[in-house]
Amino acid sequence: MPAPFIAKQAQLEAKIADWMEIAGRTLRVDSIASFSGHKVYALTLTDPAVPLERKRRCYFSQPHAHEPGTTAGMADAIEQLVTGKDLAGNATRLDIEKALAKAILTFNPIGNPQGREAAPVPCWDGSKYTNDQFWCWMRGEDPDNPGKMWKRLDLWDTRVERHPKRIGIVYEQIDEHRYVEPNRSHLSSFFKLFFKLDKEFRYERWLDLHQTEFEKSQFNCMVLLPIKGLAEGDILAEDAAWGQQVVDAWTRAGYRPQPKPVHLGYTGEQAEYFRKNWGELHKRMHCISTEVKNNAPDATPEFQMKAQAIAIEESIQRLV
After folding, report:
1. Could you tell me if residue 222 is inside a domain?
2. Domain that holds residue 270
3. Beta strand pairing status for 39-45 and 27-33?
4. Is the pTM of the predicted complex or chain greater than 0.85?
5. Residue 174 belongs to a domain
6. Using CA atoms, how far apart are residues 140 and 128, in angstroms rounded to an integer?
7. Model confidence pLDDT, tens digit, residues 216-273
8. Which of 195, 197, 177 lies closest to 186, judged by CA?
9. What's residue 1's pLDDT?
10. If you average pLDDT over every residue of the chain, what do you get?
11. Rg (CA), the chain
């Protein structure tokens, strides 16, 4: 029986209720309310009997509503940590007792539930939308260029911008007129939730989960390091080694990863968004990102989910 693909808010909240009943005190649930009224969750798993100062600390997240395989992968990993089995019923390869005794593991499974709820499909598998159509759902259709996606902004105001009639699902509304792309603005629920939990736990690692289309590429997954110059020395060396561990696990699973982790390649305005919002974090802590193929017939829901789950599993094993 195929594993459920958990990506919508109601599915997540139903699983949270199940996990709380099973996990008891090992699961802590935090949330903040977005402007749209949705709850954005942080789910922390750890053994409460072990003092916090003796534990490693890792944050797992996904900011983008159009990348639901990231949520499904986190749900699969959390299921393993809570029940000992993945969502398909297979036994986990994680040493759960060791992981919870030695680590604080916090998951933000849906960084922008407003956008996710506006998506027309639970999973983008290439069966209903071309990539051009998908990208118009992502950022909205350019009002001056029909059939093509609108520009990419960190923060924009409906009173200022000539914007698409249908707001792209990548954006989170933060007040009556303003929208942000969650991983490009500290005004987002995505970042606000992280900083709330980070004040208490002071995370040392952050795995940020993403998807992209890999058009005309031989690869179907990759690990991204920070933009050059944002992480250096021992931090960058460990980022690269951690990323390579994930890549090697994907290879063993039969996937087609880019052979080595590579630096995020943004330049210009997009690079400045990352320097502004991530620069200090990359200098302080280990941060890498996954990219798993999206919106293609050869990127099945199962593949999208398991590729992300493998990245999380490898990250936990490296941590403990």
Report:
1. yes
2. 9-116+202-319
3. antiparallel
4. yes
5. no
6. 17
7. 999 999 999 999 999 999 999 999 999 999 999 999 999 999 999 999 999 999 999 9
8. 195
9. 62
10. 97
11. 19
Q: Are 65 and 53 a contacting pair, CB within 8 Å? A: no
Q: Does the pLDDT of residue 37 top 70, yes or no?
A: yes
116 has a pLDDT exceeding 70: yes
Structurally, how many domains does the chain consist of?
1
Contacts of 46 (CB under 8 A, 6+ apart): 26, 28, 55, 100, 103, 104, 105
- How confident is the model over 120-141, as a mean pLDDT? 98
In a domain, 49, yes or no: yes
The C-alpha atoms of residue 81 and residue 118 are separated, in whole angstroms, by 30
Query: DSSP of the chain, one letter per residue?
Result: -PPP---SHHHHHHHHHHHHHHHGGGEEEEEEE-TTS-EEEEEEE--TTS-GGGSEEEEEE---TT-HHHHHHHHHHHHHHHHSB-TTSPBP-S-HHHHHHHEEEEEES-S-HHHHHH-SSSS--SSS--HHHHHHHHH-B-TTSTTSBPP--SEEETTTS---SS--TT-EE-SSSEEE-GGG-TTSHHHHHHHHHHHHH--SEEEEEEEE--TT-S-SEEEEEPPTTSS-HHHHHHHHHHHHHHHHHHHHTT--B-SS-EE----HHHHHHHHHHHHHHHHHSEEEEEEEE-SSTTS-HHHHHHHHHHHHHHHHHHH-
pLDDT tens figures, 145-198: 999 999 999 999 999 999 999 999 999 999 999 999 999 999 999 999 999 999
Q: Which two tokens stand for residue 87?
A: 């969502």
- The domain that holds 107 is classified in CATH as 3.40.630.10
Whether 242 contacts 224, CB under 8 Å: no
Residue 53 lies in a domain: yes
- The two structure tokens encoding residue 241: 């080694």
The two tokens of residue 276 are 């502004």
